[in-house]
Design goal:
The complex is a heterodimer of chains A (667) and B (422). Chain A is mainly α. Among the domains of chain A are: 141 residues, Alpha Horseshoe (Serine Threonine Protein Phosphatase 5, Tetratricopeptide repeat), CATH 1.25.40.10; 124 residues, Alpha Horseshoe (Serine Threonine Protein Phosphatase 5, Tetratricopeptide repeat). Helix content of chain A is 77%, strand content 0%. Chain B folds into two domains: 109 residues, no CATH class; 239 residues, Rossmann fold (3-Layer(aba) Sandwich). In chain B, the strands form two sheets. In chain B, strands 6, 7, 8, 9, 10, 11, 12, 13, 14 and 15 form a ten-stranded mixed β-sheet that branches. In chain B, helix 2 runs parallel beside helix 13. The longest helix of chain B is centred in the middle third of the chain and has 17 residues. Chain B is elongated and about 100 Å long. The chains are: A mainly alpha (667), B alpha+beta (422). Chains A and B meet through helix 14, helix 34 and helix 35 of A and helix 3 and helix 8 of B.
Chain lengths: 667, 422
């Protein structure tokens, strides 16, 4: 083909493409320039050649004129089309339709015009008109998408069976082309016929004998149709082909997880996939995530262990999982995970963290189960989780004496000895280890304070005062310093230095932001109200000693002091406090009937004091904790409200009644 | 003989000097009340125990009075509701004051606990419903029902129906523009479509229309309906659009009817008329019934509305619905915040409006033998409640006047019917 012929073919082809030429004046001008360019052929003097040149030139000029005229007509159509499009965008379908009908009539084979008019008819619900132009086009256009258009219109008309047959016919138009199935799928998908849409793709898979065909479309379709097991199967194929897609798949599954039955279907399918391909890390990761979503921590542990091994994580993956499980209260699973790290990855950097986390978790479990290592009378009780925690701490201390977590671990162990086992010697020894090896650290000062507490328990008040003073003077500000100062006030109180105790509490009261302020106020009020009219302070001394004995768990001694006060100073202002404290000591000794009786007397004899409602509340609390008859506890709590409706304890009382009654609504 | 008479006289004199025996429990609902909202629940509980309660309209904020009972007193204490024990004599003098023709007060006897239904889907949606929260906090029991129950005729089992933040036009709250890819939106649409098909409807909008028509019939037969936020205006829009299609294809798969606006039928609506429907799926608005406060007043410190005062003796229904301890309430916004006055039918009674703004916040009206009430806004204690916001803790708003209006509606069906005076 010569250059001239090539240009001619190009020009004629361009004429058929209105979208590219029409409406563009500059394009028309360019065509004209091209023709002129064609005639820059070498000039010869041959008359034949001159004649040929003239004929070609005439022919080309003729073509140019034809093209120009057609382009002008087409440009008019395009302007109409653009105007119609604007009308459609502004929901003026009635104005758009005549314009589109015109342009389609002028260009019946132009797909863009057909498609927009079909859409406009559908928008105007002129379904018969839409079917008319579709049928016209079907007369010569064999594309399956036209048949799918027809099916969609039939469906909108409510002719569902006919529509389904028509979608089938769309497939039959090009059954060997995979795109036909995809196109029919989206046509059905747009009509939200998800079941039918996926059914067509399943047919395609059978036909092309390719089980992975249209994987993404199938996953979407099944998900929307609520067929979760099938959806997850498709997603599993997707991550098998491309493991990087796991985040995308998780996001997709997360959207469906809350739907009924979704999570169960996902976990079942992933479980099966893991069994089939046990070395597939992506499947394992997906399974671990799904088990956690489903709250199946045991299976999540197994999966994380396998994942840890597959990825050579040396226990790090298991540790992260164990922390999650412990935080969620799945203590057994967390314990298993920590112990697994300690046995299988003993030399890994995760091992010390796991050891400490195990001890902390065991202690948390003991607290949750409300274990007690000692009875009120000081007899040892079974407290397996506290024992296990103690053992775990000690193992840490033996195995990692120089680890950065050691001071924290020692402090927690000492606290356990002190508060749970009341083993003061071991508590002190442990605090001494911190004192010797970790001077100046956060745990050093905390230990110093606790050594003061131990000294009080061991009745070494002067030494206790030294520790508290050291903490207070060294730290000066902060919660620990305030607490140490309050302990100094208490020691002065125990020792009978009431003025000193009072003045110290007054200093603490100036800082109202710390938690000890309320305790300081309470102490100040007791001292002020009970010493002002009493010059000898004997009753107050008895009372202070009783409080000290109570703190030291010397309940018998405390009772003696209080009884002495009650017998010998019947008319003293402290008598109500003393009787209330006595009831508390009886309760701590586990003598509940006597304690209840004592509280009842307080309420009866001092009904107008601030202790009266507290006494009734304490009775209810004893009944709640010691008696299996909830009804009695409820009635007793209700009595607080009946007799003291304005009590500060009223909100707590209401809350406890609601809890005991099993009310679903919080008060 | 004289001595004996003197003795009897002295005994009687001493007896009259003693304080009278406690016979009634008064639950004041003015500013002194510590938990207004739970008081409604307590009244409901008392009715459930088979005891009557007097609702003292306009007396101390619409107080309640019941015969003394240890059980009721204990429950009042447990629920933390302030009450007063009053003697027979005091109770009678309160009743005399309330019933005096010179006072705009009256007594309504509450005698049976209403059976309450809440129209809400089982799916958890990322917003809360003020009525559900009010009922839950006040401890008023209710049954949750939805489309299936309504279509199968279960409404007749209830005295009171509340419509959740619902879109009866089948446009899924018109959240399409912002939330069409959100899991909850996708799930909501899928579930609704499946339910519609299960119940024999091709489109969700058709199902919702049938539901709205059933509810309307329920009200006509004597039921009471209360709706808030979009549950109110979309209810009427759906009824009005019964002959046409106002839902765009993104909602129901086919286009809006070309002449949809002109095909609206305002004869069948309950509260609104002559409104213009918004058919743009990208616009978060259903119609021009709803109007936002002007921008300079979209501020919780300046946006208020006032309650009308009605004659308690002549108009007990609106009086009951507006009982409160304040006359001016803080405004709050919702998908439907306030209604244009010009769009409200003349048969409707306006209960609360924004002064000087030609907008209504709270209204009620009769339909057949029943009543309905519409209340604009989403959450009376959260000025702008966005999708995904945490629920309001009503324990922090125990005396919320806005929530009181909701609970007035709950007790209204418990009232013993009196012959109408007007």
């Amino acid at each position: 083909m010569s250059g001239i012929e090539t240009k001619m073919v190009w020009l004629l082809n361009e004429k058929k493409r209105p979208n590219r030429l029409i409406g563009n004046f500059f394009t028309v001008a360019a065509v004209r320039l091209e023709i002129n360019e064609l005639f820059r052929i070498p000039k010869t003097k041959s008359p034949d050649k001159m004649s040929t040149r003239l004929q070609i030139k005439t022919l080309l000029w003729f073509c140019w004129i034809v093209v120009t005229v057609q382009m002008t007509v087409a440009q008019g159509n395009i302007e109409k089309y653009q105007l119609a499009d604007s009308y459609l965008r502004s929901n003026q379908t009635d104005k758009a339709i005549p314009l589109l009908e015109d342009v389609l009539a002028a260009n019946p084979r132009e797909y863009a015009f057909y498609d927009r008019l079909r859409e406009a008819y559908a928008t105007a619900k002129r379904y018969e008109d839409a079917l008319r132009i579709i049928d016209q086009r079907l007369g010569w256009d064999t594309s399956p998408n036209i048949m799918a258009d027809k099916a969609a219109i039939l469906f909108k008309q409510g002719k569902e069976l006919l529509a389904m047959n028509t979608w089938e016919q769309a497939i039959e138009r090009a059954p060997n082309d995979q795109n036909t199935y995809r196109m029919v799928f989206y046509s059905l998908y747009r009509e939200r016929l998800f079941d039918q849409a996926t059914a067509f793709l399943e047919k395609a898979r059978t036909k092309f004998n390719d089980a992975k065909l249209f994987n993404m479309e199938m996953a979407y379709g099944y998900g929307f149709a609520g067929k979760f097991e099938k959806a997850i199967s498709e997603y599993l194929i997707l991550v098998l082909e491309n493991p990087a897609m796991i985040s995308f798949v998780k996001a997709q599954l997360a959207q469906m997880n809350e739907q009924q039955g979704a999570l169960a279907a996902f976990t079942t399918a992933v479980d099966r996939a893991v069994r089939q391909e046990p070395l597939n890390k992506t499947y394992r990761e997906l399974a671990a995530w799904l088990y956690l979503e489903a709250g199946d921590y045991q299976k999540a542990l197994q999966t994380n262990v396998a994942l840890d091994r597959l990825e050579n994580m040396n226990g790090a993956n298991i540790y992260n999982f164990a922390q999650t499980a412990a935080d969620a209260g799945y203590f057994e699973v967390a314990e298993e995970a920590y112990k697994m790290i300690l046995s299988q990855y003993a030399t890994s950097p995760m091992a010390p963290n796991a050891q400490l986390a195990l001890a902390t978790m065991l202690r948390k479990r003991a607290e949750t189960l409300m274990e007690k290592a000692l009875s009120p009378a000081g007899l040892p009780l079974s407290a397996p989780n506290y024992e296990a925690a103690k053992q775990a701490y000690q193992q840490f201390a033996d195995a990692y004496p120089q680890h950065p977590l050691t001071p924290q671990m020692l402090f927690e162990l000492a606290e356990l000895y002190q508060t749970v086992f009341f083993d003061l010697a071991n508590a002190e020894a442990t605090h001494r280890r911190i004192e010797e090896r970790f001077f100046g650290t956060e745990y050093y000062w905390k230990s110093q304070y606790e050594l003061g507490q131990l000294a009080v328990l061991q009745n070494n008040l002067e030494q206790a005062n030294t520790y508290y003073n050291k903490v207070h003077v060294s730290l000066r500000t902060g919660e620990l310093a305030e607490k140490a100062q309050f302990q100094k006030a208490l020691i002065a109180f125990y020792q009978g230095h009431f003025e000193m105790a009072k003045s110290t509490t007054e200093i603490i009261n100036q800082n109202t932001t710390t938690d000890v302020t309320n305790d300081a106020i309470e102490l100040k009020v007791i001292i002020r109200e009970n010493t002002e009219q009493d010059t000898v302070w004997v009753p107050m001394n008895l009372f202070a000693k009783a409080r000290l004995f109570e703190r030291q768990r010397k309940f018998g001694d405390a009772l003696n002091k209080l009884d002495s006060l009650i017998v010998h100073f019947k008319d003293h202002t402290l008598i109500d406090e003393a009787r209330f404290a006595r009831a508390g000591v009886l309760s701590a000794l586990g003598q509940f009937p006597e304690a209840i009786e004592a509280y009842k007397t307080v309420q009866k004899d001092y009904p107008k004091t601030y202790l009266a409602d507290r006494a009734l509340f304490a009775i209810a609390e004893i009944l709640e904790q010691s008696d299996l008859d909830k009804r009695k506890a409820i009635d007793q709590y209700a009595e607080v409200l009946m007799k003291y409706p304005g009590s500060l304890l009223a909100p707590e009382v209401r809350s406890r009644i609601r809890k005991l009654r099993g009310d679903k609504i919080s008060s | 003989m004289k001595t004996r008479r003197l003795y009897i006289f002295l005994v009687l004199l001493m007896a009259s000097a003693l304080p009278s025996r406690t016979q009634s429990l008064l639950i004041p609902m003015d500013e002194v009340q510590t938990d207004h909202l739970k008081a409604y629940g307590l009244v409901y509980w008392t009715l459930a125990q088979g005891m009557d309660v007097d609702w003292l309209l306009n007396y101390r904020g619409g107080s309640f009075m019941a015969a003394y009972s240890t059980a009721v007193e204990k429950e009042l204490l447990i629920r933390g509701i302030l009450f007063e024990r009053v003697s027979d004599g005091t109770a009678q003098s309160i009743l005399n004051e309330v019933q005096s023709p010179s006072n705009n007060m009256d007594v309504v006897k509450l005698e049976k606990q209403p059976r309450i239904a809440v129209y809400a889907p089982k799916q958890v949606l990322p917003w809360d419903d003020a009525v559900l929260m009010a009922l839950t906090y006040a401890e008023v029991p209710y049954t949750q029902i939805y489309d299936k129950e309504i279509i199968s005729g279960e409404l007749q089992n209830y005295d009171w129906l509340h419509l959740h933040h619902e879109d009866f036009t089948g446009q899924y709250g018109k959240f399409y523009a912002q939330y069409r890819n959100a899991p909850w939106y996708i799930e909501q649409q899928r579930t609704a479509e499946a339910e519609a098909r299960n119940l024999g409807f091709r489109k969700v909008s058709q199902l919702k229309l049938a539901v709205a028509q059933t509810i309307r019939q329920y009200v006509m037969n004597g039921g009471f309906m209360f709706a808030m936020c979009s549950g109110s205006d979309t209810f009427d829009i759906a009824l009005a659009a019964h002959k046409t299609d106002i839902a765009a294809s993104v909602f129901d798969g086919d286009a809006i009817s070309t002449n949809a606006q002109n095909e609206l039928d305002f004869d069948v609506t309950m509260a609104f008329q002559s409104f213009q429907v918004s058919m743009n799926p990208m616009e978060y608005e259903h119609s021009d019934i709803d109007v936002m406060p002007p921008p300079h007043l979209q501020d919780p410190s300046t946006d208020f509305f006032t309650l009308f005062e009605f004659s308690a003796k002549w108009d007990p229904v609106p009086t009951m619905l507006t009982q409160n301890h304040v006359a001016t309430l803080r405004g709050f916004m919702g998908q439907a915040t306030q209604y244009r006055k010009e769009k409200i039918k003349p048969t409707v009674t306006i209960l609360g409006e924004s002064p000087g703004r030609e907008t209504v916040r709270y209204l009620y009206g009769p339909v057949g033998k029943g009543f309905f009430a519409f209340y604009g806004g989403h959450d009376p204690e959260d000025y702008r409640h966005y999708v995904g916001d945490p629920p309001t803790d009503l324990a922090l708003h125990k005396s919320s006047p806005g929530y009181r209006l909701i609970l007035n509606n709950v007790l209204f069906p418990a009232a013993k019917k009196k012959p109408h005076k007007t």
